[in-house]
Amino acid sequence: MTLFSAVELAPRDPILGLNEAFGADTRPDKVNLGVGVYYDANGHVPLLRAVREAEKARLEAQLPRGYLPIDGIALYDAAVQKLLFGAASPLLAERRVVTAQALGGTGALKIGADFLHRLNPSVPVAISNPSWENHRALFEGAGFQVVEYPYYDAATHGVDVEAMLGGLAKLPKGAIVVLHACCHNPTGVDLGTEDWKRVIESVREHGLVPFLDIAYQGFGDGIEADAIAVRLFAEARVPFFVASSFSKSFSLYGERVGALSIVTDSHDEAVRVQSQLKRVIRTNYSNPPTHGAAVVAAVLNHDDLRATWEAELGEMRERIRTMRRGLTQRLAAHGDFGFIEAQRGMFSYSGLSSAQVDRLRAEFGIYAVGTGRICVAALNDGNLDRVAEAIARVI
Ligand code: PMP
After folding, report:
1. CATH T-level assignment (fold) for domain 65-301
2. Can you give the pTM of this predicted structure?
3. 62 C-alpha to center of ligand 1: Å?
4. Superfamily of structural domain 14-47+306-394
5. Residues annotated catalytic, as ranges
6. Contacts with 247 (C-beta within 8 Å, 6 or more apart), sequence order
7. Each residue's pLDDT tens digit, 278-311
């Protein structure tokens, strides 16, 4: 017997397992559509010009490396708030929003989950069916019971809004509802403005606690348009949480740049909530890392750099849309794949079955997640024809 004799091998992360299998595949024309990052037209993770310029200035300034405040860089937190709620938001003028820099969107969800668990550990957390696979694990890890609300409708390749509202109505008062604010991962299908209004009505009627996850702002229809859910919740005067991330929109994955924002009912509430959120952070990792947030703050608070970033984000968004259109067109002879073009963000629920995904891998060296999720941002002019032909062969 040793201390670790009883430790069982944890199940392999299915997506990381896919990446390992892809790495080991020796076929030269293999394609990995299983990834969760944006690749440029040459198949690389981009280093944005705005980021490069901000980094150069930072390097030249040769700054000391003291600790950041527990809730991060104040200028960063303020920039996040403007991006999410709009610079003219009354919420910001009334100082009702608490924002803390976090370790990516994941870190934001985690400190939000820990905060909520201290507030009320006995309520369930409801996530969409399906959802980003880490949502369940993360909230269960924080001590919550996790349930699902209906979301995706495979028959229509859309959201089953009625079923979703029915699911929300069954949740107990105080239940936490995790909502993808835009570019739903893994399906690529989002709620429309009118749907959001109905969801907000339901949240209010049933006393639910909305926790918005916005990891792809700017990848759907644009920075402002993608914030529509956040803006509608802000108008509704309900308390809510927002986990946001710059991993994708700044291509800063490994720098872990995100934020948690909590919307409260008054500045007095905000002060108290902030003090408790800081305790959660302090006992998790004390304070966040500097580099990524300093770069993002410099870009967002500097007119020229910001314009460069917005243009680069626009290029990424347009490239994804071009790939969506290209795939839809190439598959048109084999059925109506217009839903791929209509979906938003990096991912698409392609409708491929797990058997078809297996064939893509075995016969063509094309890797996708077993659920049929493909990363459209991994397509480019060099692999689009091949991918479309292979899909046409397996369907
Ligand atoms: N939420 C969703 C829906 C995501 O897809 C992701 C990342 N793939 C995250 C949160 C976490 O992002 P980050 O890398 O910033 O932790």
Report:
1. Aspartate Aminotransferase; domain 2 (3.40.640)
2. 0.97
3. 31
4. Aspartate Aminotransferase, domain 1 (3.90.1150.10)
5. 132, 213, 248
6. 104, 105, 215, 253, 256, 257, 258
7. 999 999 999 999 999 999 999 999 999 999 999 9
